[in-house]
C-alpha cells in the first residue's frame, strides 16, 4: 500500500492540512507534515503517506484513486480538486494547503457532511420515470446516438461536489439546489426515454431553484468530468422564464397534452 | 450523547481568496459603470427636452476635460464588461448544432465580441456622419 515502499523519493514537500477534531477542539487548525514524494504521487497518496507513516489520526475520504468515484474532493491550495487527479510534482516546490471541501460543514478533518447534497440529489428523481411502467416483454428501451448525445455530457457527473465547493451562491445560501443536482435533473429531463420532466420542473422554478445562480461559472471550471453544470442551470433559467410567461397565453392543461401525449423521443 | 459537531466555516471575504472569484466580482462591479452611463444618457435626453439653453450648457460639461476623462474610464469598464460577459455566454446558451456538431465556446465568445465591435463602429460612423 505504501507508495514509497521502494524508497525512491528524493524530494520532500510540505503539506499543510486543515484538522478538525470535534471531540477535543472547538475550531479547525492547520497542521503541517513533511512528505517525501516521487513524481507519480498524487495529493491523495501524499495524504495516505501521512496517515500510514506520520499521523494515523488524519481522516479523509477516498476510494477508487482514478477520478471516477468522486470521494476524494478537497480544497487544494484553495481550489476544489479531486486529490487523486492532482499531482504533488505540479505543486512542488511550493507548500500544499489542503482544506475540506468548501461550503460544506466539516465532520472531521477533510471529511465533510454531505447530507444536504444527497437530499438534493434524491429530490430531483435521478432515474428514468415512465407514465406506464415498461414490461420486460417490451424489450430494450432504444435510443438513437443523437438522443444519447443530447444528454451524455450531463450523465458524466460523478457526484464529487467540487461544483458545490466552487459555488459562492451555495456557500452563502445552502438552500440553493446547486449545480450538480441541476445537471442531473437536466440529464433526466433530456432523456428521450423519460417522462418525468413535469415532476422535476417545480424544483427548477422554486425559490431555491435556478435563479439563485448568478452565472459565476466557476462550477463548470472546476468540474473534473467537463459536465458543465453551469450550462444546465442556465438553460433551465430560460426554460423556467418561458414557462412563467407561457402560462399567460396558453390555456391551463393545453401545454400538458402537447408535450406528454406523444413519446418524447418522437418529438425530437 | 451525540459526538457529532459539524463545523461550519464562515464566508467572510469569500471572493478575495480566489483569482477566478475576484474576476467575477470585478465583472459584477463594472455593471455600476454601465448604470452610470445609462444615467448620463438619461440626463442628456432630459436636457434636450428642456430646450436649447439647457442642452448647450450640458454640452459644455460633456466636452470638459473631466467629462472626457470619465468617459474614457466608462469605455474601459464597458470593454471589460463586454469581454467578461461574452466569456460566460457559452455557458448560458443551449447547445447550438451546426452541421451535426456543437458550436464551441470560443466561437460563441468570438462572434459575440465581433458583433459588439462591428455594431459599435457602425454606430460611431453613423453618428459621426449625422453630426457633421
Number of helices of chain B: 4
Largest interface: A-B, 30 and 23 residues
Q: What oligomeric state do the depicted chains represent? A: heterodimer
List SSEs of chain B in N-to-C order. Answer: HHHEEH
The main pleated sheet of chain A reads as: 5 strands, mixed
Percentage of residues in helical conformation of chain B: over 70%
The total count of strands of chain A amounts to 7
Shape of chain B: flat
Q: Treating each run of at least 4 consecutive H or I residues as one helix, how many helices of chain A?
A: 12
User: Would you tell me the overall average pLDDT of chain B?
Assistant: 93
Describe this entry's structure for a reader.
The complex is a heterodimer of chains A (268) and B (132). Chain A contains 12 helices and 7 strands. The C terminus of chain A is likely disordered. In chain A, a hairpin with a 2-residue loop joins strand 6 and strand 7. Chain A has 268 residues and is of the alpha+beta class. Chain B is mainly alpha-helical and 132 residues long. Chain B has 4 helices and 2 strands. In chain B, strands 1-2 form a two-stranded antiparallel ribbon. The model of chain B has no long low-confidence stretch (mean pLDDT 93). The interface between A and B is medium-sized, with 30 and 23 residues.
Amino acid at each position: 500500500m505504501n507508495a514509497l515502499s521502494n524508497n525512491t523519493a528524493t524530494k520532500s514537500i510540505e503539506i499543510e492540512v486543515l484538522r478538525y477534531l470535534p471531540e477535543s477542539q472547538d475550531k479547525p487548525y492547520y497542521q503541517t507534515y513533511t512528505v517525501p514524494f516521487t513524481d507519480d504521487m498524487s495529493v491523495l497518496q501524499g495524504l495516505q503517506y501521512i496517515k500510514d507513516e506520520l499521523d494515523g489520526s488524519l481522516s479523509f475520504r477516498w476510494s477508487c484513486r482514478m477520478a471516477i468515484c468522486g470521494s476524494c474532493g478537497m480544497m487544494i491550495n484553495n481550489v476544489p480538486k479531486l486529490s487523486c487527479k492532482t499531482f504533488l510534482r505540479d505543486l512542488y516546490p511550493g507548500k500544499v494547503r489542503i482544506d475540506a471541501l468548501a461550503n460544506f460543514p466539516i465532520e472531521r478533518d477533510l471529511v465533510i457532511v454531505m447530507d444536504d447534497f444527497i437530499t438534493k440529489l434524491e429530490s430531483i428523481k435521478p432515474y428514468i420515470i415512465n407514465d406506464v411502467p415498461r414490461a420486460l416483454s417490451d424489450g430494450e428501451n432504444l435510443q438513437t446516438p443523437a438522443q444519447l448525445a443530447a444528454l451524455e455530457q450531463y450523465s458524466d457527473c460523478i457526484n464529487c461536489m467540487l461544483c458545490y465547493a466552487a459555488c459562492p451562491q451555495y456557500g452563502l445560501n445552502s438552500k440553493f439546489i446547486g449545480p450538480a443536482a441541476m445537471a442531473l435533473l437536466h440529464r433526466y429531463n433530456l432523456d428521450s426515454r423519460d417522462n418525468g420532466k413535469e415532476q422535476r420542473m417545480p424544483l427548477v422554478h422554486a425559490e431555491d431553484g435556478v435563479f439563485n445562480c448568478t452565472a459565476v461559472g466557476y462550477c463548470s471550471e472546476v468540474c473534473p468530468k467537463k459536465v458543465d453544470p453551469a450550462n444546465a442551470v442556465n438553460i433551465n433559467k430560460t426554460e423556467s422564464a418561458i414557462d412563467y410567461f407561457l402560462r399567460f397565453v396558453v390555456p391551463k392543461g393545453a401545454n400538458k397534452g402537447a408535450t406528454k401525449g406523444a413519446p418524447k423521443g418522437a418529438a425530437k | 450523547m451525540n459526538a457529532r459537531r459539524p463545523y461550519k466555516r464562515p464566508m467572510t471575504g469569500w471572493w478575495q481568496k480566489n483569482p477566478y472569484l475576484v474576476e467575477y466580482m470585478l465583472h459584477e462591479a463594472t455593471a455600476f459603470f454601465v448604470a452610470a452611463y445609462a444615467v448620463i444618457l438619461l440626463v442628456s435626453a432630459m436636457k434636450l427636452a428642456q430646450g436649447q439653453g439647457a442642452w448647450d450648457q450640458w454640452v459644455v460639461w460633456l466636452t470638459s476635460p473631466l467629462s472626457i476623462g470619465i468617459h474614457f474610464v466608462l469605455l474601459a469598464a464597458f470593454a471589460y464588461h463586454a469581454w467578461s460577459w461574452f466569456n460566460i455566454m457559452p455557458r448560458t446558451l443551449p447547445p447550438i448544432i451546426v452541421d451535426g456538431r456543437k458550436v464551441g465556446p470560443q466561437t460563441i465568445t468570438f462572434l459575440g465580441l465581433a458583433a459588439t465591435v462591428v455594431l459599435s463602429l457602425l454606430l460611431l460612423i453613423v453618428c459621426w456622419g449625422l453630426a457633421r
